[in-house]
From TrEMBL:
UniProt xrefs under SMART domains: PHB (SM00244)
Official protein name in the record: Slipin family protein
Stretches assigned to the Band domain: 22-180
Family the UniProt entry places it in: Belongs to the band 7/mec-2 family.
Pfam families reported in the protein's UniProt record: Band_7
InterPro entries in UniProt: Band-7_stomatin-like, Band_7, Band_7/SPFH_dom_sf, Stomatin_HflK_fam
Region Disordered, residue ranges: 253-288
Organism domain of life: Bacteria
Coiled coil feature spans: none
PANTHER family: AT06885P-RELATED, BAND 7 PROTEIN-RELATED
Amino acid sequence: MVEELVAVGVTLASAGAVYVTAAARVVKQYERGVVFRLGKLRPQVRGPGFTMIVPGVDKLRKVNMQIVTMPVPAQEGITRDNVTVRVDAVVYFKVSSPAEAVVRVEDYRFAVSQMAQTSPRSIIGKSELDDLLSNREKLNQGLELMIDSPAVEWGVTIDRVDIKDVSLPETMKRSMARQAEADRERRARVINADAELQASKKLAEAAHQMADTPAALQLRLLQTVMAVAAEKNSTLVLPIPVELLRFLEKGAQVATSGSGRPQAVRDEPPPLEPRLDSGCGGSNSRQE
């Protein structure tokens, strides 16, 4: 009798162990469990940890709640200003409602991927090239709204959408490079002209100052000689005193004002006038 009771106890324990093994489930911290009982969705979503289901009756499906990073393949389109571009993007999304993500859509990852591939083409067609290159934050927000609108019904929340790269044709790249080079050259010329204008004003002020104090010009000349001598080159500088130049200039002015014309020009003798010799005429009469 005792042996029969022990055998029954072992049988029940084995059956219980098999039942617990078949019914036991472990849901991880980043997962949620959706239970279907005879094909019908149970309203309660199983949280992380140990949980039990009815073997053969319930079916547990685990849904990952982590943020998914999905790269979007390069999409080619034509902008509003008729420029062909290729746009690469990346989408960050997560499941907000596990039950809806399982029931409302067959594969929420594939659905979000297809929506992410069609949305950039719409954004490209509505935008200009300058907006794609410089105003990406606004375009990212537009893509996020376009993808998030249908994804909310699937129990998926779009965290953010970023445009990684905008590829341009080689001809457009060369044209933009030439435009940028011309703009830089224009700015350089304007800056050089402004510098020349400022330098001319300063030089004019310096000339007026040196005209009032002639000694300043001598000091500037000596500074120039020192600067040339410090370079250790073969250049020979022969400074001419400014006073000497002014003395020669005054002498030339005095000579010009005294005679009315420079003294270096000599008076030329008057031209000789032809004269008839009277003796020649007398001899001619005697010969006749």
